[in-house]
Specification:
The complex is a heterodimer of chains A (278) and B (362). Chain A is 29% helix and 29% strand. By secondary structure, chain A is of the alpha/beta class. Chain B has a seven-stranded parallel sheet with strand order 7-11-6-1-4-5-12, sandwiched between helices. Chain B has a five-stranded parallel sheet with strand order 15-14-16-17-18. Classes of the chains: A alpha/beta (278), B alpha/beta (362). Chains A and B meet through helix 3, helix 4, strand 9, strand 10 and strand 11 of A and helix 5, strand 7, strand 9, strand 10 and strand 13 of B.
Chain lengths: 278, 362
């Protein structure tokens, strides 16, 4: 049976974060935490594969203890097992340090629940917004990587191949590769299901497996947390977007307004800039 | 560990010099972002007094190595092989890792495209080094630190953050398309093309590109010269047809604010700004868009902005050269007609207005 790991992250819903206009700082209070929605599309796809051909689905996350809530949500949707990796030592990790710890976590998951055939990550997180952890984890575990997946065409357990659509800027690429494979999920991949009552009951009782640094005796301390993170934020600021004097275009009728704005565009040399005139 | 202690451990990076740009291509045609990155890379390299280098990979792409020189590179590293015809993570990252190992650049930049992100994520982890995603501003500190100041929007574009990579080299970043400017192409510029051998056989590559189909309706906001964008003020999906008519007459494309996309009036591929595209057209017409910072960050690189809104106090007017207060349902068709007349007068063929299927609701 296939073993699928889904990497999730509990994130503040950054769409709800506001800027305090007085001191240009972020107002994080009262901002709800949610499972990063791209990750939920990854979970949904893993669950669909489970529904169709049978699979064990293990969800992993690295984060502070409250991230357990997100794992329970995944159990309520139908995941089999969930692992929370939490420790102050892991805190402050950038994408390089995160991919190292997630990679080590997946190795440990393999020891407990068997060899991993597929890993799903979200395309990116709502808070970090980098899209780098997926490729990072693939690299750490030497997995094939398929990013920006909009459709899983086939998962062939026997041939150990996966065929997907990748949604790129200029079109759709159909690509096939071998397992073990890491895929990053787009929202186009599927529609996320609702929790079922039996799964909700299971989630309520379920205790995620919790691992701390003590559970990783061989982990290299200089590769985790702040110390293992090459990138550091040196400054944040609120962008000061150019403000310019706006010339208001008026006219008695829409036609007059249209004429005036067109005159302005001609004065600005727009026809020449666009190559309409030489 | 305190910041000072980290400072103390700064290794000697004198062996790492130069700025390296990944040139992304499909079918032998480079993505515009590649030339934009060369333009920005040129500034960084000049400031550091180091060479600007390009990496070109593919099959039959020698002309791109030459083009990269015309766009500002002093050296083009060229790796041509049938195995590199289509982008695949493993062979592409193998080649670029080999070049980084040999050349030891201090800065490596990729476009923040699906391909650029896929490749940069793999390469940075392999090295390993720090990678800053989706940058929109780049600068360097002078000697001795020579640090790359990589700045990017954070918290859904509400803030900007500058990110440094002090302890590792090279310093890597992906950068958004449309943010930086290419320098004018100069075919007379001299440069060196350095051939690199591909060492990965097809048998070692598991991934196989079976097919590729262009999205027939996909629009290219990032490369558009004219964008007519609609927002919440449109009140529904139907007025987007008027915007499409105007965009067609102008030879442009339709954009949208997040509010319009979230309301389901138009597909996400039209979204400018927050979680959408950063654009730098010659003309940006913002219709019924209030002008929240999440949107204006994405369109502030536009050359000329015309804002049309019924609310005269809308912030968008602070970012527009020209403002029109009024009923867009009447004003937009009038402008469309006026432009049509003027183009006809100039003897310019106006493209047939196709159906509005390109903007069917999300």
């Amino acid at each position: 049976m296939l073993h699928i790991v889904v990497c999730i992250k509990q994130v503040p819903d950054s769409r709800e974060i506001r800027i305090d206009p007085k001191n240009n700082t972020l107002i994080r209070q009262g901002v709800p935490s949610i499972v990063n929605f791209y990750d939920k599309h990854g979970l949904e796809e893993a669950l669909r594969i489970k529904d169709e051909q049978g699979a064990r689905v293990t969800v992993v996350t690295m984060g502070p203890p409250p991230a357990e809530k997100g794992l329970k949500e995944c159990i309520s949707l139908g995941a089999d097992e969930a692992v929370l990796v939490t420790d102050r030592g892991f805190g402050g990790a950038d994408t390089l340090a995160t991919s190292y710890v997630i990679g080590e976590t997946i190795k440990k998951v393999e020891e407990h629940w068997g060899t991993v055939d597929m890993v799903f990550c979200g395309k990116q997180t709502l808070d970090g917004d980098t899209g780098q952890v997926g490729p990072g984890v693939a690299c750490r575990l030497d997995l094939e990587q398929l990013t920006y997946v909009s459709k899983v065409v086939e998962v062939n357990e026997e041939k150990r191949t996966v065929m997907v659509h990748r949604l790129l800027e200029d079109g759709v690429e159909v690509v096939e590769t071998n397992m073990p494979v890491l895929l990053t999920a787009l929202k186009e991949l599927n529609a996320v299901r609702r929790a079922t009552l039996p799964n909700m009951l299971r989630a309520a009782r379920y205790k995620p497996t919790v691992w701390t640094t003590a559970d990783f005796p061989n982990i290299e301390r200089d590769k985790i947390g702040l110390k293992g993170s090459p990138t550091i934020v040196s400054r944040t600021w609120v962008p000061d977007i150019r403000k310019i004097n706006c010339t208001m275009i008026t006219g008695e009728t829409p036609e007059k307004i249209a004429e005036h704005i067109s005159d302005k565009l001609w004065e600005e040399d727009v026809p020449k800039k666009l190559g309409w005139t030489s | 560990m305190s910041a000072e202690e980290i400072e103390d451990q700064m290794p000697d990076w004198s062996a790492f010099r130069g700025v390296l740009i990944f040139i992304e291509q499909r079918g032998g045609i480079a993505k515009k972002v590649s030339w934009q990155l060369l333009g920005e890379g040129r500034k960084l390299a000049d400031k550091l007094e180091v060479p600007l280098m390009a990496v070109v990979m593919g099959d039959d792409v020698r002309h791109l190595a030459q083009e990269a020189i015309a766009y500002g590179a002093e050296q083009s590293y060229l790796c041509e092989a049938p195995e590199l015809k289509q982008y695949r993570t493993r062979p592409y990252s193998r080649v670029i890792l080999k070049i980084i190992e040999e050349v030891k650049p201090e800065i490596v930049l990729f476009g923040a495209t699906a391909t650029g992100r896929d490749l940069a994520g793999a390469v940075a982890t392999h090295l390993p080094t720090g990678l800053t995603a989706d940058t929109t501003e780049l600068d360097v500190e002078p000697h001795p630190s020579r640090l790359l100041l990589a700045s990017r929007p954070a918290f859904s574009e509400k803030m900007m953050a500058t990110i440094l990579c002090k302890k590792y080299r090279p310093q890597m970043a992906t950068a958004r398309a449309g943010v930086f400017e290419a320098i004018p192409k100069d075919e007379t510029r001299a440069g060196e093309i350095i051939h690199i051998e591909n060492e990965m056989n097809e048998s070692e590559i598991a991934a196989r590109v079976v097919d590729f189909f262009e999205e027939s309706h996909s629009i290219n906001l990032e490369e558009a010269e004219i964008i007519v964008a609609g927002g919440r003020g449109l009140g529904g999906a139907e007025p987007f047809a008027l915007l499409k008519d105007l965009a067609d007459v102008l030879g442009g494309v339709v954009g949208a604010s997040r509010a319009a996309v979230d309301a389901g009036w138009i597909k996400h591929e039209h979204q400018v700004g927050q979680t959408g595209f950063t654009v730098r057209p010659k003309l940006y017409i913002a219709v019924g868009i209030s002008g929240a910072v999440q949107h204006t960050v994405g369109m502030s690189g536009s050359e000329i902005v015309v804002a049309i809104n019924k609310d005269e106090s809308a912030p968008i007017f602070q970012f527009a050269q020209y403002g029109i207060v009024g009923d867009l349902m009447k004003i937009i068709p009038a402008i469309t007609e006026e432009i049509r007349k003027r183009k006809e007068f100039l003897g310019i063929q106006i493209p047939n207005t196709e159906s509005t299927e390109a903007i069917e609701s999300a």
